[in-house]
């Protein structure tokens, strides 16, 4: 999504968000992410106004004092930025790919099923299986921090069963243009 | 909604995790090996945080890493990294060269007999924020100054009045915003009797 993203060309406008909308955003994030309100208060204090940066293809990035915090595509789920995820790794469920896949992940490719099912990869256990279209943190074998954020295309149990084709669509990854933007 | 929950459960917020980012390639240090400046990243980490450097790049760590991959794949990966690095370096070089070769054109345009505007083009190649620079010129010369698109569709700053001499001087002195602009790259042009009537 952010492989090519130039703030000068792709941003169509910045507006501050109405407080009623902010309330909605806060509520839906708290229900979507695995985070308690106190921690979220640290990320985004209640008094601070959020800025909505509208971009091409209906991507909305929400920033706090110019620093991107999270983004959304259409009315889809909220994704934290990778920097935020590094600080609070537990907010998204984790999947892990093997070492061979890192190279492709950092080039922006979608993650294929075998990367998760091989020895180096891991998926949540069957009793915590994820449905399709869930935001996940993509970790890598032997690494401590997340390398990307994705959206599951298949349920995790299905990934195990099918073991072919795209399992997780990469939304943002280390070194893409969203990563390079530190201030918007 | 959040506030009621807060009152009900005084839970301590989880403190944020500190991540060490590489100053060279901006990745978390463990991902430097996949970046395009691995050699420089390694040097930086060795200087900055020797303990971590040992953790990632000591003989044992490298051995452990190879264990999970076949030898062939490892070789290929290394080759790829080297290639990528060379490519990135060449690109950076080319960019620098281009930057050094690009010129700043200061054009004095006759608007009306005895009246001129000054168009400055090419500042953006030297990391000058055009909007800020325009504002700065406007303040400095007490005239109007704006960022407009010229006929080629490129951004330039148009300052009202003939201030070309002053601007050249300012660039040579390296005032404020303009300090990164090398003075050898300035070209002064005069344009008279415009064809396109506006």
Topology:
The complex is a heterodimer of chains A (184) and B (198).
Chain A: H1 7-10, E1 11-16, H2 19-32, H3 37-43, E2 51-55, E3 59-64, E4 67-73, E5 78-80, H4 82-87, E6 94-97, H5 99-105, E7 111-112, H6 113-117, E8 135-140, E9 148-152, H7 156-162, E10 166-173, H8 177-180
Parallel strand pairs in A: 6-8
Antiparallel strand pairs in A: 1-2, 2-3, 3-4, 4-5, 7-10, 8-9, 9-10
Chain B: H1 2-8, H2 38-48, H3 50-57, H4 59-67, H5 71-101, E1 104-112, E2 115-121, H6 130-141, E3 145-149, E4 155-160, H7 164-173, E5 186-191
Parallel strand pairs in B: 1-5
Antiparallel strand pairs in B: 1-2, 2-4, 3-4
Key descriptive features of the protein:
heterodimer, A: 184 residues, alpha+beta, Sulfate adenylyltransferase, 2 domains, 5-stranded antiparallel beta sheet, 5-stranded mixed beta sheet, 29% helix, 28% strand, globular, B: 198 residues, Translation Initiation Factor Eif1, elongated, Translation machinery-associated protein 20 (chain A)
Describe this structure in words.
The complex is a heterodimer of chains A (184) and B (198). Chain A is an alpha+beta fold and 184 residues long. Chain A has 2 domains: 7-87, Sulfate adenylyltransferase; 92-177, Sulfate adenylyltransferase. In chain A, 29% of the residues lie in helices and 28% in strands. Chain A contains 8 helices and 10 strands. Chain A has a 5-stranded antiparallel beta sheet. In chain A, strands 6-8-9-10-7 form a 5-stranded mixed beta sheet. Chain A starts with 6 loop residues before the first helix and ends with a helix. With 198 residues, chain B is of the alpha+beta class. Chain B folds into 2 domains: 29-100, no CATH class; 102-191, Translation Initiation Factor Eif1 (2-Layer Sandwich). Helix content of chain B is 44%, strand content 17%. Chain B is built from 7 helices and 5 strands. Chain B has helices at residues 2-8, 38-48, 50-57, 59-67, 71-101, 130-141, 164-173; strands at 104-112, 115-121, 145-149, 155-160, 186-191. In chain B, strands 3-4-2-1-5 form a 5-stranded mixed beta sheet, covered by helices on one side. In chain B, strand 3 (145-149) and strand 4 (155-160) form a beta hairpin. Chain B is elongated.
């Amino acid at each position: 999504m952010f492989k090519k993203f130039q703030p000068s060309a792709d941003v169509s406008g910045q507006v501050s968000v109405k407080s009623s909308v902010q309330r909605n955003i806060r509520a839906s994030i708290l229900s979507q992410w695995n985070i308690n309100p106190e921690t979220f208060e640290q990320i985004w204090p209640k008094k601070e106004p959020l800025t909505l940066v509208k971009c091409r293809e209906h991507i909305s990035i929400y920033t706090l004092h110019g620093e991107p915090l999270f983004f959304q595509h259409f009315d889809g789920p909220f994704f934290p930025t990778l920097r935020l995820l590094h600080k609070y790794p537990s907010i998204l469920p984790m999947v892990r790919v093997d070492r061979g896949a890192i190279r492709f992940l950092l080039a922006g490719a979608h993650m294929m099923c075998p990367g998760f099912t091989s020895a180096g990869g891991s998926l949540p256990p069957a009793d915590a299986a994820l449905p399709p279209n869930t935001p996940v943190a993509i970790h890598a074998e032997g690494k401590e921090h997340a390398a990307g954020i994705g959206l599951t295309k298949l349920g995790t149990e299905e990934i195990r069963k099918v073991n072919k084709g795209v399992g997780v669509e990469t939304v943002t990854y280390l070194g893409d243009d969203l990563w390079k933007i530190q201030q918007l | 909604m959040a506030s009621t929950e807060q009152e009900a459960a005084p839970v301590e917020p989880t403190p944020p995790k500190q991540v060490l980012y590489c100053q060279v390639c901006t990745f978390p240090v463990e991902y430097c090996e996949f970046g395009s400046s691995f050699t420089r990243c390694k040097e930086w980490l060795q200087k900055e945080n020797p303990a971590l450097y040992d953790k990632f790049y000591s003989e044992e760590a490298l051995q452990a890493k190879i264990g999970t991959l076949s030898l062939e794949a490892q070789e290929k990966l290394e080759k790829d990294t080297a290639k990528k690095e060379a490519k990135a370096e060449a690109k950076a070089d080319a960019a620098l060269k281009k930057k050094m070769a690009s010129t700043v054109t200061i054009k004095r345009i006759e608007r009306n007999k005895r009246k001129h505007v000054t168009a400055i083009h090419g500042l953006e190649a030297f990391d000058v924020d055009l909007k800020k620079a325009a504002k700065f010129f406007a303040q400095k010369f007490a005239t109007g100054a704006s960022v407009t698109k010229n006929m080629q569709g490129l951004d330039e700053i148009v300052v009202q009045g003939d201030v070309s001499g002053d601007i050249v001087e300012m660039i040579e002195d390296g005032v404020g915003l303009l300090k990164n602009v090398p003075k050898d790259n300035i070209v002064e042009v005069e344009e008279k009797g415009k064809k396109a009537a506006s």
